Each structure stands twice: as C-alpha cells, then as structure tokens.
UniProtKB/TrEMBL annotation:
Coiled-coil zones: none
Annotated signal sequence range: none
Protein's name in the database: BZIP domain-containing protein
UniProt keyword terms in alphabetical order: DNA-binding, Nucleus, Transcription, Transcription regulation
Molecular function GO terms recorded: DNA-binding transcription factor activity; protein heterodimerization activity; transcription cis-regulatory region binding
A biological-process GO annotation: positive regulation of DNA-templated transcription
Gene: LOC115705744
A GO CC term attached to the entry: nucleus
Length: 143
C-alpha cells in the first residue's frame, strides 16, 4: 500500500490522490464488510450451536417419555395378562357350577335357570363384555 501512496504522491496532479483516496475508502469498506460477514457467520454458528443443544435436550426428553410409555405399556400388558388368566379361571368355575346346576335340575326335576356362557372362540368378533371407547389426545404424547 505504501508503494501505491508513494506513486500517487510523486505525481504532480491531484487526480492520483483522489484515486488513492477512493482505493483506501474501498479497502476500508471491504474490510468492514468482511468483518461484518465474519460476525454474521459467528453469530449464525452460535445460534446453530444453541439450537443443537435445545434439540438434543428435546430428543432426550422425548426418549425419556418413550421409555416411560414403554414401561407403562409393559405394566398394563402384564396386568391384562393377569386379568385374562383370572377371566379364564372364573369361566371354568362358572362352567363347573353350571354343570352342578344341570345335575341338580336333572335329579330334582326342578327348573333351574342356567346362564349361557358365551364362547369367545366361537365368535371372536363379538366380545362377551361391553366395549369401552379408548380416548386419546395429542397431550398424552408430550409428557
């Protein structure tokens, strides 16, 4: 840069100094623009780093929520299996009691009202108990 200024100062007319002044202003403007660009890039990098941290925290929360839901599902499934086993046992007991009632009816000649036991295997699409709707909302997945 000093060689440019020396050449300009060695000239006798003022047009060389005007050109040098324009070059100097352009260089300063370019430096300032480059500085602003570096600052924008630095800010963008910081913003993206912060967003990465927030997203990582959100991922961790979602993973914890998934784990909790899986654990709750396992507990519900286990309880459901217990209830199914109990239902089968009670059905067997009812069949036994119905057979005793049938024997009593046959021996005594009295008419006894023996309830019919629905067989879920014969009509699997017809449940022996009323269907209760399952309600769900988007909020249940956020916890």
């Amino acid at each position: 840069m000093s060689s440019i200024q020396r050449q300009a100062s060695s000239g006798s007319d003022g047009s060389a100094t005007v050109v040098d002044e324009k070059k100097r202003k352009r260089m300063l403007s370019n430096r300032e623009s480059a500085r602003r660009s570096r600052m924008r890039k630095q800010k963008q990098l910081e913003d993206l780093t912060g967003e990465t941290g927030r997203l990582q925290m959100a991922i961790n929360q979602i993973q914890q929520s998934i784990n909790a839901k899986e654990q709750a599902y396992s507990q519900v499934e286990s309880a459901n299996n217990v209830l199914r086993a109990q239902a089968m046992e009670l059905t067997d007991r009812l069949r036994s009691l119905n057979s005793v009632l049938q024997i009593v009816e046959d021996v005594s000649g009295l008419s006894v009202d023996i309830p019919e036991i629905p067989d879920p295997l014969m009509k699997p699409w017809q449940l022996a108990y009323p269907i209760q709707p399952i309600t769900a909302s988007a909020d249940m997945f956020l916890n």
